[in-house]
Specification:
- By secondary structure, this protein is of the alpha/beta class.
- Helix content is 40%, strand content 18%.
- A 5-stranded mixed β-sheet has the order 3-2-1-4-5, with helices on both faces. It has a 5-stranded mixed β-sheet with strand order 8-7-6-9-10, with helices on both faces.
- Helix 1 packs parallel to helix 2 and helix 5 crosses helix 7.
- It is globular, with a radius of gyration of 20 Å.
- The structure holds 5'-O-[(R)-(carboxyoxy)(hydroxy)phosphoryl]adenosine (KG4) and zinc ion (ZN).
């Protein structure tokens, strides 16, 4: 195992997180989720930047303490630089550059979505290349084919809303607050997924693209027609949640396994915030048991935005690309970058 000790920082959206990685082992992973946005029904960028500024030093100190390491022992720093909210990314990257300069160690810029992608390999050394990765988060729903480290080919993408966005927007219509994904997950546990038939857009199209905005519109019309005064009883709410969740998950799983079949790839990674969904996790296990396929899911604390996945990817970058690539502090943040082209 390498003796590198990396401090990783993640601040792309509404989680401030810091982690210490030794080799490829996570020594600490401290996550502070901003609660201020709940009252607004979505993330307010300016408030997010301010909250990151307030939290970052404390979170970094805590991660170092939990890892029982001194700053002088660090060999590099990893930080999320894209994509995300510009101001939020700047807080993390400025902090990382300052600390890197002070300690005289390299700072490794990391792509947030690649961080999610490789989090499937974290604590799963048996997950080897090639693999198919599906990233399902608040901003992305993308299937990648990854043949080698750093060789990520986009097979398909959402044409409109991301899966997490669908959970959040539909949850908002149901009065579940923000973010609604975990609330829908919890309510759906005792609901009937077959109670209502919501659309599964693009499910049988011969591509790996997704579309969730039609589902959102269909739920809106369904609620206006059948529950103009709101949903009064809990069991109906549970049934609606279970049916919406099933509509999202069925398309995700269908396309994912088709990609694995077409490209003859046996290892599958599913990561990003929505990979915390309990029904998605159990459906993936059920589906993989019937096939000669291995599904790798990050543990829950690596599903939501976290710095451990950023540090782990930095460790892989150093392993595969070497340290010399990261001597410059000339990188900048890029709020909107996402490689969505098909190769
Ligand atoms: O990866 P993430 O933490 O942030 C982004 O990079 O977007 O993903 C956040 C998304 C939110 O839309 C949230 O509602 C969704 O992940 N999410 C879930 C669950 N936990 C988080 N969606 C469904 N079920 C869950 N248990
Ligand atoms: Zn994320």
């Amino acid at each position: 195992m390498s003796n590198r000790i990396i401090l990783a920082i993640e601040s792309s959206c509404d989680e401030t997180s810091a982690s210490v990685i030794h080799g490829e082992e996570v020594l600490s992973n401290v996550i502070s989720s901003q609660t201020i946005h709940e009252q607004y029904g979505g993330v307010i960028p300016e408030l997010a930047s301010r909250a990151h500024l307030q939290a970052i030093s404390v979170i970094v100190e805590k991660a170092m303490k939990e890892a029982d390491r001194e700053f002088s022992e660090l060999t590099s720093i990893a930080v999320t630089t894209q994509p995300g909210l510009a101001g939020a990314l700047l807080v993390g990257s400025s902090f990382a550059k300052g600390l890197g300069l002070k300690l005289g160690i390299p700072v490794i810029p990391v792509h947030h979505i690649e961080g999610h992608m490789y989090s499937g390999m974290l604590e799963h050394p048996e997950c080897t290349f090639p693999f198919i990765a599906m990233i399902v988060s608040g901003g992305h729903t993308t299937i990648f084919l990854v043949r080698e480290f750093g060789e990520e080919i986009v097979l398909g993408n959402t044409k409109d809303d991301a899966a997490g966005e669908a959970f959040d927007k539909i949850g908002k219509m149901l009065g579940l607050g923000y973010p609604a994904g975990p609330r829908i997950d919890a309510l759906a546990k005792n609901g009937n997924p077959k109670a209502y038939d919501f659309p599964r857009a693009l499910m049988y199209d011969a591509n790996y693209d997704f579309s969730f905005s039609g589902l959102k519109t269909s739920v809106r019309y369904f609620l206006q027609k059948n529950f103009p005064d709101g949903i009064k009883d809990e069991s109906t709410l549970r049934d609606i949640c279970a049916s919406v969740q099933e509509a999202i998950i069925e398309v995700l799983i269908h396309k994912l396994f088709r990609a694995s079949k077409e490209y003859r790839i046996k290892n599958i990674i599913v990561a990003g915030g929505v990979s915390a969904n309990s029904r998605l996790r159990s459906a993936l296990h059920e589906a993989s048991e019937k096939r000669p396929i291995n599904v790798f899911l990050p543990k829950l604390s690596y599903c939501i935005d976290n710095a451990a996945m950023i540090g782990f990817l930095a460790a892989l970058k150093l392993k595969y690309l070497g340290e010399d690539s990261y001597r410059s502090l000339q990188f900048t943040v890029n709020p909107r970058s996402m490689r969505t082209e098909r190769t």
